[in-house]
Amino acid sequence: MPSNCPECGSSRVVEDDLYSQRQWVCEDCGSVVSEGHLTTSLSDETQGTNVPYHASTEEIKKPCRNLILGFIRVRALCRILRLSSDMESEVPFCSFKLGPNQVEEVLSETPQRLVDRMSALMELASDTWIVTGRQPLPLLMGSVYMAWQSLNPTARMKYSFTKFCKIGKAPEQSWRKSRDTALKRVSELLEVLCRLGRELPWLRGVAVEPNTVVTLVDDILKHRRALLLRAVNKYEQQLQNELSESQTTECEKDPSESNRSKSPSPETPAVMSSDQAECENPADEEATDCPLPPNHWGKRHLFLPPCVKSRKRQRVDVPQLEVTGDEDISDSEIESYIRSPDEIKLYLKAQKELKQM
């Protein structure tokens, strides 16, 4: 501890730790006599603050080389998906610990294989419009889950998404908040994989279901382009056949009858379809999707953006009744307000008994 101030010579030198740094300040002139000096005696050591090991810099270690490469790859995927900077910084903290030394051998996976398979699934999701207009973080988590399952399907198909997150020791607050949305993205990916899996030439006649399509992910991703083209062509050919059949049936009908059925009579209003009626008269649930009408252009495409594939129910404003007080009142409504002789007797009796109590 300094004895006197070198500026004014005062002996009133005190310790000041206001800014979390040890300083010796003169009370008379306010000059800093010394700061940040090393302790040289036991008395100086006892005046310091004990710092626990977990709060010191010794425990902060640099990430390993593989972890740095993994973060670089994840950030590159975030830029491909055009995520915001805040989302890009949160994604590495949602990483799963599935290394060979972190979980059992059957459940472990090398980071490079997992990232490559997840990237292929994300590209497939982008080609089939699953990425469009969706939150990126649940889609990333769902893709990691499916990639992990597909790399060893016989041993990992039995694990649910929740169990997978617990095995990978992912932050609970991140996956629990996005669990429902991630499961929806997983179901959409499974639906796309089933459609493409049915186009594999060596699986003709074999049923491809969502609970078993994980075993075919490797083959589907290898021939992704060809299977997408094959599925789209097959769907268009099916629509063409249905259109030709409908035109043939219309030609076989009597033209007078067809014209009579198409032209509605002026006395009876045109009857709306059930889908149109449901869309114009929405249910109470806002999240319920409305199916496309039969002549919508989206019916001609196999894969569609979410905003086209499922239209939201339209809100219809209920007309409010204008009450002025001059409305006519029916005789039946007036009679409902007039008491009968028996009701009058019961009312007088009840009123008399209440007064006597």
Overall description:
- The protein is mainly alpha-helical.
- Helix content is 48%, strand content 4%.
- It contains 16 helices and 5 strands.
- The protein has helices spanning 42-46, 65-80, 85-90, 111-127, 136-150, 153-156, 161-167, 172-177, 179-197, 217-222, 224-252, 255-262, 274-280, 306-309, 331-337, 341-356; strands spanning 13-16, 23-26, 32-35, 289-290, 311-312.
- The strands form 2 sheets. The chain has a 3-stranded antiparallel β-sheet with strand order 1-2-3, with no helix packed on it. A two-stranded antiparallel sheet has the order 4-5.
- Helix 2 (65-80) packs parallel to helix 4 (111-127), helix 4 packs across helix 5 and helix 5 (136-150) packs across helix 9 (179-197).
- The protein is flat and about 110 Å long.
- 15% of the residues are buried.
- Mean pLDDT is 76; it is low at 261-288.
